[in-house]
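A reminder from the course coordinator: this example appears on the midterm review sheet, so study it carefully.

Given structure:
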């Protein structure tokens, strides 16, 4: 649904979105937000497939931050409002508001995107497409875009999880899907602790592409009782870094 410069999409929590304690998974939340971004871009005529077909370039997620005061329940239908806040030649910011079935705000998110030339694997000017320029709504959300997350002081032999990138990890851009990194990071974390904790804030910074056949290591470190930092590291160093602040 389009309301001026804001798109709204409804999402009903599915059984596969729940973990062993019937909590809404963080990966399912990120998926719902990113799918909403895709739907909105399609409706505004600057979606990924349109950009690929017209210019050989596609949208790439660089950063995302999510803050939730509550997670949706099983079978609940949530409402996600999204809009483009800023656009310049190489970067655009997209915001989100998450509401529960009653219409109460339960979360905010913000994300930063660029475009990738799929032939050269180099940045592609966003402003070559006028459709996005006509959709800017300069309304912010009370969630800052993540800054640079520092590296973990983790030796190679302390990896918590090792993955060889396979067919199911790769998206239509020819590299690992954005959501798959969060899945790898949480798979590396103790399940008992995940069952006991709920996420209050998530930050992910995407740094380098991870392609089919590559081997990556996943590291994590509890910085305090309420904060955990993660890194996914490949042959060229860290590819993704992330931070989770847990509810107290």
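Designed residues:
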């Amino acid at each position: 649904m389009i309301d001026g410069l804001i798109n709204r999409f409804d999402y009903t929590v599915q059984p596969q979105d729940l973990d062993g304690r019937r909590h809404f998974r963080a990966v399912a939340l990120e998926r719902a937000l990113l799918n909403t971004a895709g739907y909105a871009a399609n409706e505004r005529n600057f979606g990924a497939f349109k950009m690929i077909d017209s210019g050989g370039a596609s949208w790439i997620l660089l950063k995302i931050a999510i803050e939730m005061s509550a997670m949706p329940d099983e079978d609940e239908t949530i409402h996600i409002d999204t809009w483009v806040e800023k656009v310049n030649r190489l970067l655009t910011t997209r915001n989100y508001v998450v509401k529960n079935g009653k219409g109460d705000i339960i979360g905010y998110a913000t994300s930063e995107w660029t475009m990738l030339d799929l032939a050269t694997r180099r940045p592609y000017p966003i402003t070559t497409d006028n459709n996005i320029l006509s959709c800017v709504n300069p309304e912010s959300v009370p969630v800052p875009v993540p800054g640079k997350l520092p590296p973990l002081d983790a030796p190679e032999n302390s990896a918590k999880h090792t993955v060889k990138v396979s067919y199911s990890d790769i998206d239509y851009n020819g590299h690992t899907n954005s959501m798959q990194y969060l899945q790898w990071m949480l798979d590396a974390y103790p399940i008992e602790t995940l069952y006991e904790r709920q996420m209050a804030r998530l930050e992910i910074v995407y740094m380098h592409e991870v392609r089919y056949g590559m081997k990556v290591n996943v590291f994590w470190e509890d910085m305090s009782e309420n904060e955990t930092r993660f890194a996914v590291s490949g042959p060229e160093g860290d590819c993704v870094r992330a931070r989770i602040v847990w509810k107290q």
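The chain has five helices and twelve strands. Residues 26-43 form the longest helix (18 residues).
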